[in-house]
Amino acid sequence: MIDFWLPAGLLLLTALAFLLIPVLRVRKLQAEEDRTALNVTLYQERLQELQTQHQRGVLDDAQLAAGRAEAARELLTDTEGVQHRSGVLGGKIPLLAAILVPVVGIGLYMHWGALEPLQQAREMAAQAPKNIIEMTARLERAVKETPDSAEAWYFLGRTYMAQERAVDAAKAFEQAVGLAGRAPELLGQWAQALYFANDKQWSAQMQALTDEALKADAQEVTSLGLLGIAAYESQRYADAVHYWERLVAVLPEQDPSRVAIAGGIERAREQMGEQPSPAAESAAKVHALEVSVSLAPDVQAQVQPDDAVFIFARALSGPPMPLAVKRLKVSELPAQVSLSDVDAMMPELKLSGFEQVQLLARVSRAGNATQGEWIGKLGPVPNTAREVQSVVIDSRDGQSQ
Questions:
Q1: What is d(CA 187, CA 173) in angstroms, rounded to the nearest whole number?
Q2: In 148-276, which ranges are continuous DSSP H helix?
Q3: CATH of the domain spanning 289-396
Q4: CA distance 147 to 120
Q5: Using one digit for the tens of pLDDT, what is the confidence trace for 151-190?
Q6: Rounded Cα–Cα distance for residues 373 and 49 (Å)
Q7: What pLDDT, on the 0 to 100 scale, is given for residue 392?
């Protein structure tokens, strides 16, 4: 932190210079005044001596007048250019201020300053996290050291969602809302985390959060997408189409998630008895990978029916966070799932944004998407592949994502 304290020290010295220079000038004036007082005393003694000599007859009246005039000229010469102070406090106040300024300034900065956030930002910039576990650890340390940082809580919630830790994400978003206010985006993220934490069961709290978010911003994308998903899961297909059409209308034309949402709209309409158009049916399949997941024979005897199974795609060359995630149980295997932009945990990281991906399937008894007991991998796989990709869980999972 030398590059912070050095400029701060220079600024402090500059401030002290403005305070101490008047003190030094006051001391100079004091010395001048003392010299003037001495000259006046000597002048008075000279006059007394001249008067004594005149009384004794040593000096006549003319000589006495000439001696007095000469003493007066010498006094004027010695006191010429001497400045007088306006008051005694002029030197004491700056000196007192010079002592208090650094003490008070450092105290105020240590109380209200941002030294810890600055240090955290430097650490983040110095070395980028190698994986999502390291990123999570850094964010957890950040919210512990600066619990009043809404940004830190928000990004921690997003990271938890990428790890399928919806319960923890909901708590993080709740903290962010409490600190930053009830911004529509935060309310939507909070409601989404609660939805997945509650095993996709809708609640009055989620409805209240999304209603509040859309009342403040009718185009809040997370709330619109979540309401569409919740409606589709509860077989309210008309409502799902309504919310997803509103969502598609506000997304940019180049946003790759538009294709996946359009596919969801067509599937909902198909459930309502409407026939999708060939163009829409083709669009719905873009950027979706069909993945078949099974257990190797020697693994089947070592897992339990309720163990969680996470199937996800991540960039072959890029960020380690999942691009699309699905969750099953061991009892549901073998199974075939579809991974697309709809399954993205972070809007900026979508399957369609990376040409080649790696497919993974992980068994985790603890329900942790980033670390488990068994794993299967397949890749590289192009994100436009049409054939079914087979992933067999057959290896010990000794590494985290």
A1: 8
A2: 150-162, 166-180, 184-197, 204-216, 221-233, 237-250, 257-271
A3: 2.60.40.2990
A4: 13
A5: 889 999 998 988 888 999 999 999 999 999 999 999 999 9
A6: 113
A7: 94
Full-prediction pTM beyond 0.85?
no
How is the beta sheet containing 335-339 ordered, strand by strand? 335-339, 289-295, 389-393
Which of the four pLDDT bands, split at 50, 70 and 90, describes residue 269?
A: confident
**Confidence at 265, pLDDT banded by 50, 70, 90:** confident
What pLDDT, in 10s, does the model give residues 364-383?
988 887 888 999 999 899 88
Residue 361 vs residue 133, higher pLDDT: 361
Give the span between the Cα atoms of 118 and 214, in whole angstroms. 35
Helix spans in 256-325 (H): 257-271, 278-285, 297-300
Phi/psi of residue 359, nearest 5 degrees: -100, 135
In angstroms, the CA 2 to CA 9 distance is 10
Q: What is the CATH number of domain 129-285?
A: 1.25.40.10
pLDDT higher for 316 or 5?
A: 316
The yes-or-no verdict on residue 362 having pLDDT over 90 is: yes
Rounded to an integer, what distance in angstroms lies between the CA atom of residue 98 and that of residue 13? 10
Please count the CA atoms within 13 angstroms of the CA of 366 that sit on its side-chain side.
8
How far apart CA 44 and CA 36 sit, in angstroms, is: 12
Which structure tokens are listed for 380?
A: 């590289």
How far, in Å, are 39, 232, 360 from residue 356 at the CA level?
A: 96, 30, 13
Residue 69 burial (10 A CB sphere; 0-12, 13-18, 19+): exposed
Report the C-alpha gap between 325 and 307 in whole angstroms.
Answer: 16
* Exposure letters 176-186 (e unless 16+ CB within 10 A, then b): bbebeeebbbb
